[in-house]
Structure formats: structure tokens, C-alpha cells
UniProtKB/TrEMBL annotation:
One of its GO terms (molecular function) is ATP binding. Residues 64-88, 101-126 are annotated as: Disordered. This is Multidrug resistance protein E, putative. It comes from the Eukaryota. Residues 134-369 form the ABC transporter domain. It comes from Trypanosoma cruzi (strain CL Brener). Gene3D superfamilies: P-loop containing nucleotide triphosphate hydrolases (3.40.50.300). Pfam families: ABC_tran (PF00005). Keywords: ATP-binding, Membrane, Nucleotide-binding, Transmembrane, Transmembrane helix, Transport.
Amino acid sequence: GLLALSLTMAVSINSQLKYVVNQAASVEADMNCVERVQHYTSNIEHEDLMEEIDEAIRALEKNDKKRRERKGDPITPAGITHDDDDTSTATVSVPLLEESHASDASPELSYSPADNNNHNDDNGRRENVAAGSLEFRDVTMRYRAGLPHVLCGLTFTIPAGQKVGVIGRTGSGKSSLLLTLLRVVDIEDGQIVLSGRPIRSYSLRALRQLFSMIPQDPLLFNGKVRENLDPLNVCSDAQVREAIRLVGMEDRLAAETDPLQCPVEEGGANFSVGQRQLLCMARTLLRRGCSFILMDEATANVDPTLDKQIQHVVTHVFAGHTVITIAHRLHTLATYDVILMMEEGRVVEMGSPYDLVRSADTRFAQMVRSLGESAMQEFMASTQAPTR
């Protein structure tokens, strides 16, 4: 009897062992996710410390105010000093907790909360922002230690309000330049100055609010046109309609009973690529606090008619912004103020299209000439002599 029972139980051992192995493998796979989250939380350096510094400053000021109200004397926490003339402005010296070899980083950063108040309203947006200037000073950048530099001693200056076209072969550092502006990747050496301020003096949130990005593949969400153009609902209907008119999308939406309530399919499938780009430009116009517009080959996939419409928007509608465009088509740069040609992370040529195309020995002129004589003549006719 016992032998028969043992044989009967042994038959099911195979399936039970299979179940145990499957469960063990599943637990191990799930714990890998936990381990990865813990690694990212504990071992990956935070993208920026300025937000925590701002919070610490606000907490110290709040506590200081409470103490002074309680005791009736101006007790100031350690590390905070007030100007004698203006007690509303506090300056805090906070040691940076990350190592950096960049020349704009120092062991101690003097940061004033009033700096943000001068540029932002209560909602963290700058309402009336003029175009900003940009300066690169011997900037060097690599994506990771041990990898080669992608930007090598990059130096140039862009005055406020100019339209700049960045050209170069694949791997020349065009997209890397935009990443350093957004501080997606921090520079290794040198200094970037935005509107007269070192880039690291901005909090990451305040810095990125200065920029609006228009990518090669425009992004629209499932919903209504208004929700896509003004997702935070901070603009009036009249402002949204005016933005649509300025970018030339009024005719496309004229057939709708209410253009602002026109449905947008997932990814903007019911609009062409060019129309999606124009809607993204309208969204940029409605962004408050935007000084710089970054365009990464935004006209690479559109037809010539919409290409001209987009260039008209860049030249006239974005006249109050500083525009930096990674160009795919040379003819789109004819009306720009400055051409920046890059090679191996360096600027090899910089100047107005008018000057570069009329100098026979420039690389830019050779590139335009390679398009053919008719294209060369058309480009030269479109360029304008820079104002001296």
C-alpha cells in the first residue's frame, strides 16, 4: 500500500517542480525591477541641485520670518545675509555638492532668491520676455567619462533676436549643442552664458522655461486643438485663435464649427506633418517666458509649400525670439541672420548667408554651389546683406 501511494505521489512531482521553478524565475525577474529602481534612486546623481537649494532657501526664509514675528527682533539663520537697504532680498551661500571642472562652477555659489523674482511671476512663468542672447566660451562636453569629446572648445556669440542656422555632417555636434543648452548633458569645461547670466545660475526648471523645442517629428496629443496648443489653459480663446492665425492654420480649421474644439487624433494623424509643425509653432507662441526657440530639422519632412510657410513664421512671427535651427535644407537658411557650420565639435565657419555664399573659398559656398547653378542663383537672390 505504501509503495503504491509513493508511486502515485511521485507522478505529480514533475509538474510541481516545474511550478516551483517558474515561480522562482518570476520572483527573480520581479526583484530585478526593484533592484533597478533602488539603484536609480540611490546611485544615480540628481540632474540638478538648484531646485533643492531653492526649497532650502525658501524654508530658511520662512523660519526666519516666523522667528522675527515671535521674538520681535531680526534673527537671521546662519548662511543668510540681508542687505541693509532692502531686507526683502536675501543672499544665501550654498556649497555645491557635485564635482565639476567647468569654469562657471565654483565651490560656492552666491544665489539670491530675488534673481528668480526678477524673471518669474507667481506661477513660475516670465510674462513679457524679450529675446535672449547666447554665448559659448570654450565649451567642452562629452556624454560619459572615457568617451571622446563631442564638443571641443566651442566658442561663439549670438546677439538677442537673431535667427541662427546650424549645419554640419552627422556627428559634428549639432544636436549635442542643443542638449547642452537644456542641460540634458552638463558641460565638462568652459562656460555658457544666457542673457548675461551663467547657465548654472538658473534653476533647471527656470532654464528650460526659457526654451521651446520644435522637433523633427512634431508631437500632438489625442484631444482638441485648444488642449494641444494651451495644455495648461493659461491663455484666452482669443489668444489661441490669434496664434492659429499667425502660423497660417486658420484656413485649415475654418470648416470647423469651433476651430478650437477641432478633434486631434492620436499623434495628430488627421493633420499632415507640416500642419502638425505649424500647430507646434502656435503652441510655442502661446508659451509664456520663452526667449529661445530650438528647431531640430523641423522642415525635413514637409513639402516645399509648407516649408515656405514655416520659414515665414520663423522670420516674421518669431521676430521677438532668438531662434536656433539645425538645418536639413540649405535653402531654408537664406533669410537667417547667421550660419554656424560645425565639424567634429568645433565651429569652422560663422557668418551671414550673404557673406558666406559670396566668398568663393568658404565651405558653405561650396555646399550651395553643389546644388546646381539655378539653386545657387536662387539662394543668392534670397539672401540679404547684413546690417552693419
